[in-house]
Write a structure and sequence with these properties.
Elements lengths: L1 E9 L5 H9 L4 E10 L9 E9 L4 H14 L11 E9 L2 E4 L1 H5 L6 H9 L10
Antiparallel strand pairs: 1-3, 1-4, 2-3, 4-5
EC number: 2.7.6.3
Pathway: Cofactor biosynthesis; tetrahydrofolate biosynthesis; 2-amino-4-hydroxy-6-hydroxymethyl-7,8-dihydropteridine diphosphate from 7,8-dihydroneopterin triphosphate: step 4/4
Pfam families: HPPK
């Protein structure tokens, strides 16, 4: 299966490259858009680094979520102040169609401006509408 992942970190942490490398140990990684510096709603611009990648992973969703949480911990999440890395599953590919992940829908990921920007950069904005 192919999964679309959103990677994020506070701008002061340069951990996204290490996260991509760690994901590469799980399967083939494809970067869909260049890293973007973004801000939070009502916050300072450039507070966060974000990347959009896809990962081919043969295991079930739950195993991938566990691996992503392990990578987050390995890169300092829970030990360092702030958010050194966050990996969220956005969607799963069924053929050429992306199906939004229910957890991402529940978190309203697809209406977030930084997610919309990355999807647009990758040419995937129409494939995953902000509904």
């Amino acid at each position: 299966m192919r999964w679309l992942l959103l990677l994020g970190a506070q701008a002061r942490y340069d951990t996204l490259g290490a996260a991509v490398d760690a994901l590469g140990a799980l399967g083939e990684v494809h970067e869909h858009a260049a890293e973007r510096l973004t801000g939070s709603a009502g916050g300072e611009p450039g507070q966060y680094r974000n990347r959009l990648v896809s990962l081919r992973h043969a295991g079930p969703r739950e195993a991938l979520v566990a691996e992503c949480k392990r990578i987050e911990r390995d890169l300092g999440r829970g030990r360092l102040d702030g958010m050194p890395v966050d990996i969220d599953l956005l969607a799963c590919a069924h053929g050429n169609d992306w199906q939004p992940d229910p957890h991402a829908v529940a978190k309203r990921e697809f209406v977030m401006p930084h997610v919309r920007l990355l999807l647009a950069d990758a040419g995937l904005e129409a494939a995953l509408p902000a509904a």
